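hey m, so remember when u said the tokens were messed up on ur end? i reran from scratch. heres the input so u can diff it against urs
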Amino acid sequence: MNIELDLSNSNIIDLTSDLIPNTNATTIILPSTIENIYQNSFLNCEELQNIDLSKCINLKYINKYAFSNCKYIKDIDLSKCINLKKINDFSFNECYNLTKIILPNKNIEISEYAFENSGLKCMKLNPIILFNDLY
């Protein structure tokens, strides 16, 4: 069963796990007002397949474990997130089906373990991406 959670008309600035506790939604649409996706915001949202970030022009940070264990997400399009500064460690941890991510046309910092235990196979880099602590 497909369940859509449309937050696009809300004025949420900081998304926390308190707002979306283990939802059964398969699709979530986020608003343009979002600036931070905090730690554990979508942790264990195991039914989540699609996260629409197309309106998230103010998004700056995706924090630790934000999408951890969202097993059915296949791709993430961050191309419209023109203010994105950082994707933190373990943000997409255990997103086993995540195979593709599209980043905005700007420099952003991606922490070393941001995609730990994911299925990531393709990352569109535009133009330069800084990897933190890679040795």
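this time it looks ok to me. The chain has no helices and twelve strands. if urs says something different then somethings off w ur setup not the seq
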